[in-house]
């Protein structure tokens, strides 16, 4: 039996799980944490502390994102070496790796650094711009993950 099928299947599961995690964090977790006033009684977490909680979640998620980046780079490099060359695969894998590393290596640490400076730093234009850029990066990551998943699945079905 071909053992490569297990590697391919594991890779697809990793991509799908990563997309799911990005969607859950962006669509479910963040809105709940930042809008506790709508959900709780006698417990109000201000915007700054909600941001601290969300940052801790993203910091922990960053470790998974580093793992994802490594796996995507390794798997796609091996597939490229084996002759599976495709522009869509290349660009989506490149976007997954770069946006994942930007999010985990740049945006999360910078946001944590500004939060450590106190509430005033998190109300600055610098923080707002950094936050907007990180949200955009996260959205691009989600799109790149689903494109990579679908394209890789299409190519695996052919072989």
Structure keywords:
4 helices; mainly alpha; 159 residues; 0% strand; single chain; elongated
Quick gist of this model?
82% of the residues lie in helices and 0% in strands.
Secondary-structure map with pairings?
Layout: H1 4-34, H2 47-81, H3 87-116, H4 125-158
Structural summary, described in words:
The protein has 159 residues and is an all-alpha fold. Helix content is 82%, strand content 0%. It has 4 helices and no strands. The protein has helices at residues 4-34, 47-81, 87-116, 125-158. Helix 1 packs antiparallel against helix 4 (125-158) and helix 3 (87-116) packs antiparallel against helix 4. The longest helix is centred in the middle third of the chain and has 35 residues, at 47-81. The chain is elongated.
Please state the average pLDDT score: 93
Order of helices and strands: HHHH
What is the terminal-to-terminal distance? Answer: 15 Å
Shape: elongated
Class derived from helix and strand content: mainly alpha
Number of E strands? 0
Poorly predicted sequence stretches spanning 5 or more consecutive residues: none
Strand residue content = under 5%
Q: With helices defined by DSSP (H or I, 4 residues minimum), what is the helix count?
A: 4
The helical percent reads over 70%
Largest sheet: none
> What would you report as the Rg, rounded to the nearest angstrom?
18 Å
């Amino acid at each position: 039996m071909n053992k490569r099928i297990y590697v391919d299947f594991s890779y697809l599961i990793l991509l799908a799980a990563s997309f799911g995690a990005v969607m859950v964090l962006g669509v479910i977790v963040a809105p709940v944490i930042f809008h506790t006033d709508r959900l709780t009684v006698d417990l109000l977490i201000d915007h700054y502390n909600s941001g601290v909680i969300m940052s801790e979640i993203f910091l922990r998620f960053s470790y998974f994102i580093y793992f994802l980046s490594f796996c995507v780079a390794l798997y796609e490099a091996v597939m490229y070496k084996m002759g599976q060359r495709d522009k869509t695969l290349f660009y989506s894998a490149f976007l997954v790796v770069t946006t994942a590393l930007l999010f985990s290596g740049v945006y999360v640490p910078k946001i944590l650094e500004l939060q450590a400076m106190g509430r005033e730093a998190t109300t600055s234009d610098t923080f707002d711009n950094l936050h907007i850029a990180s949200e955009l990066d996260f959205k691009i990551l989600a799109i790149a993950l689903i494109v990579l998943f679908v394209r890789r699945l299409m190519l695996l079905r052919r072989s």
